[in-house]
Amino acid sequence: MALHLILLLMIMGAFGTEWSVKYNQQEICALKGSTVFMNGTFTHPEGLTVTETFWTVDPSEKPDLSKSPDYSGRVEYLSTKQKQSSLKLSDLMKKDEEKFFFRIITNVEKERWVGQPGVQLRVTELHVEAPEEVTEGQTADLTCKTTCSLTDPTFIWYKNGHPLTTKTIKNNQLHLQTVSSEDVGSYSCAVRGSQHLRSTAHSLRVRYLPKNVSVSIRSSGHTVVGFSVTLTCSSDGNPPVKIYTWFKEDGTSPVGSGHSYSPLQSGSYYCEAQNEHGAQRSDLVPVDLNGHSVILYGAAGVGLCGVAVLLSGFFWMRRKRQSRNVDEPDYVNTGLRVKSPDDDSCGVNVYENVTKAGLRAPPPDDHSSSAEDYENMTGSGLDAPPPDDGSSSAEDYENITA
Predict the structure, then answer these.
(1) In angstroms, rounded to a whole number, what is the distance separating the alpha carbons of residues 179 and 138?
(2) pLDDT of residue 212
(3) d(CA 100, CA 117)
(4) Residues in CB range of 396: below 8 A, 6 or more apart
(5) % helix / strand / coil in the chain, to the nearest 5?
(6) Which residues contact 367 (CB under 8 A, 6 or more apart)?
(7) Phi, psi values for residue 61, rounded to 5°
């Protein structure tokens, strides 16, 4: 009798005469926005006809997911073999974290089954865990984190949106061996097969001493008495450079400080930029405060125009003071032209007119003019001997040398 019962139980098991549901995975971790598959196989007692199978998240109410508004358009049932069912759930949301059960309906009202223990779905997102700031020369590890364990993931790292191929990647970690300023950027990670589901970008800052220290030079120019030069120092550092010190070549003591400096002597200068991580100096910049090309352009231009103005005034005064009438005037109208004060240049015709006029200053003993009528015009190429009468003094003469 006992042997007969054992044989009966073996036959019932072999032909699937009992209710059973087996799941390939009882816990699944998937990325938000991805698609997940849940697979299950089942058996039922003989003599029953299966009329409907579906998946549910509520074993008590047992609603069909495909008919639920929360899963509308995201649920699909797949069956590749008899007594097997697969659930395809797309565009995962965080609220999809539930336990999913396979439900079997037969032609007998009381013969229905819910497969236990079900499949626990966990939905996660990727995020980068890393230090906010690293000092140059140190090492740094960036970790691609999840709230649950993905199944055999292969992690991909990105810097500023571009895949990283030259860095060391181990499991879910990106290792930066010796951090430099070139490692500054925005880092994100993804899983192969779901590259479109990247993590939120993480900005890595690197603290480093000043780099690319350079000096720019700017001159004022166009002045009568000379010109000035302003040197400006620029650099790249983190934190930004706030201390600039200026040195002259071969000098040991600073000659100035600040972002800009105006040297008072010719020579070669450099600046030193400093932050809390160190200092760096620029290349030497030569400064020539005696550059004739700049000085003459400004000084000579104004000086020659000044000579023209003085000459015009001299001849006008001279003609006005003449008290005698002669058939032929002693002086010829030179046709001098005075240019506007804002004109920086004078033409050659100013000086040619004076020369062609053949002007000759009358001797100082000529009583028709006084000593104050004469000016020292040596710089203009006009010779006027000093008066010998006692009516004039050195104050009556004006040096108009250009």
Answers:
(1) 6
(2) 94
(3) 9
(4) 371, 372, 374, 387
(5) 20, 35, 45
(6) none
(7) -80, -30
